[in-house]
Specification:
It is a single chain. The chain has a single domain, classed as Rossmann fold (3-Layer(aba) Sandwich), CATH 3.40.50. The protein is α/β, with parallel strands linked by helices. Helix 2 runs parallel beside helix 3 and helix 7 packs parallel to helix 9. The radius of gyration is 21 Å and the shape is globular.
Length: 411
C-alpha cells in the first residue's frame, strides 16, 4: 500500500481544540468526551510544512497537498481535484456583483465535490483494513463512495431515499455497490451501526444525529481553498457554498484559515452557506445563537441540501469567518440553474444554490466583498430530468418552422 506523506498528528474536537485524540482509528461518532455530538477534525504539524508547497504551478490531483491531508493511499486515486475556476460576467451582472467566479466541482470524477471527501474517507477504510464501505446518501455522496470503494476493491453499501432519481441510482449501481432505498433515518442509522460494528464496514457518512460525519472526509475539501487561491492569486472576499451539513463549508473555510496560519495569505473570506428556504437549520441555529437547530421537513427540490438538523461545523465556520447564512427558495434555485446552463454550466438544482445565494445576499444588502466565488457542486445529470425532443415531419420546411416557433430562431 503506497501512502503519500502526511503531517497529520491526531484528531481534535472542533468545539474544544485543547484536547486531542490519536489519529487512528477515525472517530466516526464525534467527540467521545462531549455531551453533545460535536465533530472532530484532523490536526497537523504545521511547523513542518514546506513553504514551497503553495508555490505555483499546482499539479493535478489532491495528493499534491498530501502533507496537509490525512494519509492518502494510491489505491483510492481517481484524479479528483484541479477543477476549473471560471469567470462568469453575465451571471455576475444578473446577481448584482462586479465579478463572480465559479468553482466547477461537477468536473470531478463522479461529477461532484464529494470525490474530494471520499478520497480521504475511503483511504481511511483501506488503512484500517475495513471489510467494506457504508454510506447514507441522497445521490452524490453515494455515487462517489461507490466509485472510490470500487477503486480500492472494497464492497460498498449505499442507503438512499426511495425518491432518488433513476439516473443517480443507475450511477451508483454501475460501480457495483449495493443500493438500498430506506425512508427512515433511524433505520439507516441502525443499519450503519450493524454494518460498522458487527460486519467491519467503514462508515463514510454520519453515524449520529445531529451530524458529525467522518473526521477525515472534510479535510479533502480544504484543497478547494488551496486551488482557488492559486487560480485567483488572492484570497476571495466572499465564498458562497451550497450547504446541508456544512462539511463542505467547513472544509473550504479551514483551507483558507490554514493559508493564513502558514503566512501564505493574511485574510480569510466571508463564508456564506446557502440553504433551501423550506428548511435552513443552520440559519435557524445562527439566529438562535445555538450550536444546533432542528426544523420541519418541508418539501424542497434541492434534495442534496435537504437537512433538517444542522452540523456544528457550519456554526464554527460562520463565526470564525465573520460570515452569515442565506436561504433561497426553489424558484430562485431553478432560475440560477437555468441561467448557469444558458452560460455553459449545467448544474443540478442544489449545485446552483450558491449562485442563487449571491443574488439573495445582494438583494438583502448583506456585505459581499470581492472577489466573489460561488461553488457549483454537481452536474445537472444528477437531477434526472427527462426531455422529449420534438419530432417533425421529414422536411426542411418543417424543421425551419419548428426552429422559429419553439426556439425563436430564423436561420
Amino acid at each position: 500500500m503506497e501512502t503519500h506523506r502526511s503531517l497529520a498528528t491526531g484528531q481534535r474536537p472542533i468545539a474544544d481544540d485543547t484536547r486531542e485524540y490519536p489519529l487512528w482509528p477515525p472517530l466516526t461518532e464525534g467527540d467521545p468526551d462531549a455531551e453533545e455530538p460535536y465533530p472532530l477534525e484532523v490536526s497537523y504539524d504545521y511547523g513542518a510544512v514546506d513553504p514551497a508547497l503553495f508555490e505555483p504551478p499546482p499539479t493535478p490531483g489532491i495528493q499534491r497537498w498530501a502533507p496537509l491531508l490525512p494519509p492518502l493511499v494510491s489505491e483510492t486515486d481517481l484524479g479528483e481535484g484541479a477543477t476549473p475556476l471560471l469567470s462568469a460576467p453575465a451571471v455576475a451582472e444578473r446577481c448584482g456583483v462586479e465579478s463572480l467566479y465559479l468553482k466547477d466541482e461537477s468536473q470531478n470524477p463522479t461529477w461532484s465535490q464529494k470525490d474530494r471527501l471520499n478520497r480521504c474517507a475511503v483511504s481511511a477504510a483501506v488503512h484500517t483494513d475495513a471489510a467494506g464501505v457504508v454510506v447514507s446518501s441522497t445521490g452524490n455522496h453515494g455515487a462517489s463512495a461507490a466509485a472510490y470503494a470500487a477503486r480500492a476493491g472494497l464492497p460498498c453499501v449505499v442507503l438512499t431515499s426511495p425518491s432518488i432519481p433513476a439516473a443517480s441510482a443507475a450511477f451508483i449501481d454501475a460501480y457495483g455497490a449495493a443500493v438500498v432505498a430506506v425512508d427512515d433515518w433511524e433505520l439507516k442509522r441502525r443499519t450503519i451501526e450493524w454494518l460498522t460494528v458487527e460486519c467491519g464496514y467503514h462508515p463514510v457518512s454520519s453515524r449520529t444525529e445531529p451530524h458529525t460525519g467522518h473526521p477525515f472526509g472534510p479535510e479533502g475539501y480544504k484543497t478547494i481553498a488551496y486551488e482557488i487561491y492559486h487560480e485567483l492569486t488572492v484570497t476571495p472576499g466572499t465564498v458562497f457554498v451550497p450547504t446541508a451539513f456544512s462539511e463542505l463549508l467547513y472544509g473550504v473555510w479551514k483551507g483558507f484559515d490554514e493559508l493564513r496560519r502558514l503566512g501564505v495569505t493574511d485574510t480569510v473570506p466571508r463564508m456564506v452557506p446557502v440553504e433551501p428556504a423550506a428548511r435552513g437549520p443552520l440559519s435557524a441555529a445562527i439566529e438562535a445563537e445555538e450550536a444546533f437547530a432542528t426544523v420541519p421537513a418541508e418539501p424542497t427540490d434541492a434534495r442534496s441540501l435537504a437537512a433538517t438538523t444542522n452540523g456544528y461545523r457550519g456554526v464554527h465556520a460562520i463565526r470564525e469567518s465573520d460570515g452569515y447564512p442565506v436561504t433561497v427558495d426553489d424558484d430562485r434555485i431553478r432560475e440560477a440553474r437555468t441561467r448557469l446552463a444558458r452560460n455553459g454550466w449545467w448544474q443540478e438544482g442544489s449545485g446552483a444554490a450558491g449562485v442563487a445565494g449571491v443574488r439573495a445576499a445582494v438583494e438583502a444588502d448583506e456585505p459581499v466583498p470581492s472577489p466573489v466565488v460561488a461553488l457549483a457542486t454537481s452536474s445537472g445529470f444528477k437531477d434526472g430530468d427527462r426531455i422529449e425532443p420534438p419530432i417533425v415531419e421529414e422536411s426542411v420546411d418543417a424543421i425551419r418552422e419548428l426552429l422559429a416557433d419553439r426556439y425563436g430562431l430564423e436561420p
